[in-house]
Amino acid sequence: MPTFCRHAVLALLVTPATALAADLPAPLTDADFIEFDPARAEIGQLLFYDKILSGNRNISCGTCHHHDHGSADGLSLGIGEGGEGVGPRRTAGNGPSKIKKRVPRNAPALWNLAHRDVDVMFHDGRLSISDIYGNGFNSPAQEWLPQGLETLLAAQAMFPVTAQFEMAGNPGENDVAGAAHDRIDYVWPILAKRVQDIPEYAEMFIEAYDHVYTPGDITMVEIANALAAFIGTEFRNHDSPFDDYLAGDDSALTPEQKRGMRLFYGAGGCADCHSGPLLSDQSFHALAVPGFGPGRTRPWDPIPRDQGRVAESDRLEDVYRFRTPMLRNIALTGPYGHNGAFPTLEAVVRHHNDPLESLASWTPAMANLPEAPWLEAIDFVIRQDRAEMMRLQAAIDIEARALPESDIADLVAFLHALTGETAKERPMGRPETVPSGLPVD
């Protein structure tokens, strides 16, 4: 039976109130999250903002996932190694060190990634929990990913440092970039040695890890586990008005937000994908998000495009599908879409409401791309490829809803109700200094 028919039959069997109550998730609690050692989280806080983990010592994890920008960067496509500044004001650099390429995708926010239900990461899901390689994860490193990574979040922390345009730098610039060009796992011992050589870090690792007796025992595994401890602790947040409502406080939501919630779990169809306690089905869907930028291409693909999940799964049905984002604190983490195509919540809601109309009316001015004249020729060239645009339009997993303006406003109001009361007041925050002595963004 077609989906819309099943929904119609169900609508005859239950009242709207009953249906909504059945769809609402249970309130989140701290017990739903992985617990971490505070001593390791303290190390992770410093490493998160320490540029020692980048090839040219000029960018940190925090540069693109900054506290001031909701654990993201406010840009459509990131400006990685070679850029200058932080957040929406970050520039593409200048002179020989200027960026050679934009980061192909939007920097994802870090909220609630240590929830026990999270089993896949990255926009295309190229990292997941799995026994396929005998190390606990299916990852780009395959069998070269070392043993001992305690969580999926720790495994994720292994990869930005190996990416040329994110943190590693270009071949010939530093030993990390050269190692990454040879084989991905050659990077990690180089970075671990940098950390081993800093006495303050060495002392902290020896104190926090029972199996670390000397600086030489510190590996990238311990570094990644510390980063995960920080990220998982620091960006846990579930004290929004919606969370209060789920816990029984009917007054936590305004009338507009309640109408938006009913639409979200009803006629708007949002909960078809944004379901469960994290407001994400942890799956992948094609939404016809406008393409631009360098694309995340396969080695044999000369077209600057991003076809999403298919690059990981090799299944044609996954073309243009991307992971459903979790929505708590979504109002703090724009722009939206896997490439940041939509600058506001209203814009992305309108796209879901009518993907084809939104795709047709989208303009490059909606993308927040720091000026880089040497990259302009490629920034929007994919939009001139008529065949690619037709393929994008043909792969859409959601139906147009044609909701009225008032409904769109109510949905946006509900999305704002997902912002945590303490989201901007994190328990650890950004350190003023780091043990390497390098500047902190």
Describe what you observe in this structure.
This protein is mainly alpha-helical. The strands form 2 sheets. The chain has a 3-stranded antiparallel β-sheet. Strands 4-5 form a two-stranded antiparallel sheet. It is globular. The N terminus is likely disordered.
What descriptive keywords fit this protein?
single chain, about 450 residues, mainly alpha, Cytochrome Bc1 Complex, Chain D, domain 2, 3-stranded antiparallel β-sheet, two-stranded antiparallel ribbon, about 35% helix, about 5% strand, globular, disordered N terminus
Radius of gyration: 22 Å
Mean pLDDT rating: 94
Alpha-beta classification:
mainly alpha
Question: In percent terms, what proportion of residues is strand?
Answer: under 5%
Which CATH class of the largest domain? Answer: Mainly Alpha
The total count of helices amounts to 18
* Helix fraction by DSSP (H/I, runs of at least 4): 25-40%
**For the record, what is the CATH homologous superfamily label of the largest domain?**
Cytochrome c-like domain
CATH architecture of the largest domain: Orthogonal Bundle
Weakly predicted, low-confidence segments: 1-16
Give a short account of the largest sheet. Answer: 3 strands, antiparallel
Measure the end-to-end span. Answer: 54 Å
Q: How are strands sequenced across the largest beta sheet? A: 1-2-3
Strand segment tally? 5
**Total number of domains:** 2
Order of helices and strands: HHHHEEEHHHHHHHHEHEHHHHH
Looking at the structure, the CATH topology of the largest domain is Cytochrome Bc1 Complex, Chain D, domain 2
The shape, in one word, is globular
